[in-house]
Specification:
This protein has 19 helices and five strands. With about 425 residues, the chain is mostly helical. The strands form two sheets. A three-stranded antiparallel β-sheet has the order 1-2-3. A two-stranded antiparallel sheet has the order 4-5.
Length: about 425
Amino acid sequence: MSAQPEISPAASQRSAAEFPWTASAAHAPQLVATMTQYLDQLAVSARPGTVSAYDITLRQFAACVIETDPTCRRVADIDRRHIEYYKLWLKDRRRAGGTALAAKTVRHRLGLLRVFFERVIEWGYDDAPARVPIYPGDLPEVDDPLPKFLDDATAAQFMAALATETTPAKRLLVELLARTGMRVSEAGQLDDDAMVRIGDTHWLRVPVGKLHNDRYVPLHPILVDLIDTYRRERGRSRTGKLLERADGRPVDRRTAYRWVQAVARRAGVGPVHPHQLRHTLATQAINRGMSLEAIAALLGHRSMRMTLTYARITDRTVADEYFRVTAAVEANYQQRHDLPDDTAGDNMHRIAADHRRLLGNGHCTRPVALDCQFETICERCGFYETGPEFVPVLLRQRDHAATNDQHDRAQIYTRLLADLDDTT
């Protein structure tokens, strides 16, 4: 393998189904045996979707290795060069529309492959490489966009159009997505008796889903009426699930997408994806003061890090601080600041000198016209600590502040000196 072979364009365009294990096993039986052994072990503890993702990735990688290096017959023989070939293979691969694979997809494939190598080494497989041939730098950086949501005006239009929906199943599904923030997969798996009453509140039991956990979410009175009406008109459930299509099958992702799109078209708000309703509810909740812990419980987040994604959309602290500062700046712009008739450079130097703050190791020359929220910020911090050796500096800072009518600063240094007297 001294020369790098060319990646076959035809090979990189084949679908996952065109890389059967049987074909690869005919060329490299030990390599395939190790990979399928890993898949069998993975199936014991992982979900079918996870196993399927590994299966596709390993089948494609095995075919790529065999094509670019027919002499490679074992996983233990795989080295850095094979990974570099596979990266080029992924780069050349095209989706159905002719576009390249998204960076997120490439990162996912390489990430699965890296975990495979880590585990076969950790599990002590005989046919394992000496070290993991995939490095963190091989995984492409992906964008981290904010969740797409409907603003208040658009959401109001959407919900007004939804209220006119006459098909009970459609109305109920979209209302559930919009008012509870549940995922489409969760809505489709709701049991027919998922609604329960605890005390004075109706709750909906959302089944085990994406994060392997179930939860109860409170139901808006509108949803309670819609569920009661829908179940009464529908009659007995044919599938045991709450939501069913007209043909008796449970609601799936495509059905949910079509129903949400129909409401969006009627509302005149353009394309709306079902998951946008989840993002919209979370954003509305944060905007109106709901705690992150409560939002995490409502949406079924296992980690607060997931919920914090929504906090990035509308950080009220940033907004409040921004408008407070800009208001002060605008007020300063509206004031007239007349300067004496000497040179501008001398004027600026004099203004800075007249209002300079004495610091522990120098001066702050910020003009008094410019406010500063960081003034004496360290002295106000709970972690600030001083000692008797700094008493002369603190005395000078206190006296300097008092002489310049900086009463607030003078009180800070007075308190610090008093605390030192109490502890010495």
